[in-house]
Request: fold
Amino acid sequence: MYTTQADPMHALYAAVKAHSQMEDDQLREAGQYGADAGWPGFCYYTECCTFYQANKTAIWDLAATYADDFGYKSVPEFVASFGRAELADTADGFENLLAWFALEEVGRWLEDHPQDEEESEEA
Reply:
């Protein structure tokens, strides 16, 4: 599902929209309130793991960038700083956290770049 673009957030935005069928307002709310509040397509481990597996390159690239930006030595160390990090005790839990991370970051990105959503929808 992931395709290389100048800004990987466009690809993650498209992937989250396709996976969840959520409207942009809901995505912004997920970024504001947190993914663990329960959002379409991101409630169950099976949904989150499916999303992660389909988009892991983009998710991992984004997490690696953030880890570096925030001074973490690795993505796992960065994930250990997340709320609900105790879920990372299993492979499914780790993938779930990274899927939630992607959802939340897409919501935050939409809040900061409202004009970009229009460009993504036209593509």
Q: What stands out?
A: Helices lie at 8-20, 24-33, 45-69, 75-79, 91-112, 114-122. Residues 45-69 form the longest helix (25 residues). The chain has one domain: 8-122.
